Amino acid sequence: MNYKAPRGTHDIFLGDAMSISFLEFKAKEILKKYGFEEIRTPIFEDADLFVRSIGSNTDIVEKEMYIFEDKKGRKLALRPEGTASLVRAFIEHKIYNLMPTGKFFYIGEMFRYERPQLGRYRQFHQIGAEFFGNSSPSADAEMIILAHDLLSSIGINNTSIYINSLGCEKCRPHFRNALIEYFGPTKDLCNNCCRRLKKNPLRLLDCKIDSYKFINIPQILNYLCIKCRDNFDTLQVLLKGVNCSFNIDKKLVRGLDYYTQTVFEIRSSDLESKDTLIAGGRYDNLIKELGGPNTPAVGFALGSQRVLLVAKKQKLFSNLKKTEKILIAIANQELFSIAFSFAIKMLRNGLKGDKNISVFCPKNTENLTNQLKFADKIKASKVIIFAKDEFKKGKLLVKNMHNGIQSEDFINNFF
Ligand code: ATP
Ligand code: MG
């Protein structure tokens, strides 16, 4: 039997594992600076939570969800995104009382049944942030700047920010009607678009097959009510005020139904078609719709694998500092348990205070030649050898594996 990882999933190891850890470490640093606190939610939820929040006429709910029944017949889904779960937790635990900053982040795997290709997988990682309880466009600006800072913290700079407004429940229906009028007579729409025209015409703007055909399409920005227009203008003033350059993408709608007013994406020209690294927006009605208190919210999610593809292309992580490896070895079997204790002490205390090292314990089943061969294999920089004659004088041998030079030092000098 030859088992393989399921289609669209990946084992992450070697440099890729280091890179994703580094990205998540840097992200946590920045998120903390902006006052965000971590929330971990289950990887599966009631399937209905996603249907209600993401919307039944979206790609995710129509074709991308992993839905299954458990032994009690509960209909569950592997999470396709993080916002719905965070909102569910926010309401369930009345988190608004426990964590009043309203700023939360999550890091973890998401699952979508998509056609696997570069930058699009069935299991992928997201880093997401949500800001609850602030309806001001300054919260939108803060989130866009935070998203941009996450990318620059790891050295990705040549990105572009795109913003748009989707209006609110007052002004969006006018735009919706204008779209139906515009698309109505169009004959050559794909099946999906034909079906969605009546139910969810905004989704047509995001159609990966047809959208290039839509020229002179009605534009949401011409339909915004005064409040939505004002908010969108203020957002732009705030972004300009901190020299954050952006573009207005009048067709930007996003793949989830819960967005209102501001939506945004950060894209990289290094990724060809799968170019969106971060996507987000405002969703002022979702918390209320899922049974919580009326709470405005804005958030985004970063696709870690896509960010890493860009980082690789730009050779950003090629010199991530690797820790020095040190092997403790024995030349005489009777020194084994003392050498083992020494190794554990070094593991805990470091070598002369340097804790950025990895220590490998001795084996009592190998002769010294095999231990040195192993040191070569793992690319250890040093082997510290317990040998009878030197040990009697309170000393250990140190073999520098780069130049082969062997020296001696007193045991006490190692700490
Ligand atoms: P797309 O239009 O590319 O399908 P989306 O609108 O479905 O994106 P979101 O749900 O907003 O994407 O997810 C936020 C980010 O997560 C995306 O910008 C992308 O970086 C990443 N992402 C989404 N789907 C996948 C996937 N299947 N594989 C890898 N990364 C993904
Ligand atoms: Mg998608």
Strand content: 15-25%
CATH C-level class of the largest domain? Alpha Beta
**DSSP summary: helix tally:** 14
Share of helical residues? 25-40%
Q: Within the largest sheet, what's the order of strands?
A: 1-5-6-11-10-9-7-8
CATH architecture of the largest domain: 2-Layer Sandwich
* Attached small molecules: adenosine-5'-triphosphate, magnesium ion
Give the count of structural domains.
2
Shape: elongated
Low-confidence stretches: none
CATH topology of the largest domain: BirA Bifunctional Protein, domain 2
Structural class based on helices, strands and sheet pairing: alpha+beta
> What is the CATH superfamily label of the largest domain?
Bira Bifunctional Protein, Domain 2
Strand tally = 16
Explain what you see.
This protein is of the alpha+beta class and 415 residues long. The protein folds into two domains: 14-171 and 224-313, Bira Bifunctional Protein, Domain 2 (BirA Bifunctional Protein, domain 2, 2-Layer Sandwich); 324-414, Rossmann fold (3-Layer(aba) Sandwich), CATH 3.40.50.800. It is built from 14 helices and 16 strands. It has helices spanning 15-33, 47-54, 59-64, 83-92, 95-98, 137-153, 172-183, 191-199, 226-241, 286-289, 304-313, 336-349, 368-377, 388-392; strands at residues 37-38, 44-46, 67-69, 75-78, 103-111, 123-132, 159-165, 247-248, 260-268, 276-282, 297-303, 324-330, 357-360, 382-386, 395-400, 406-410. The chain has an eight-stranded mixed sheet with strand order 1-5-6-11-10-9-7-8. Strands 13-12-14-15-16 form a five-stranded mixed sheet, with helices on both faces. Strand 9 (260-268) and strand 10 (276-282) form a beta hairpin. Helix 1 packs antiparallel against helix 6 (137-153) and helix 6 (137-153) packs parallel to helix 9. It is elongated. The model has no long low-confidence stretch (mean pLDDT 93). The structure holds adenosine-5'-triphosphate and magnesium ion. Residues 59, 255 line the site of magnesium ion.
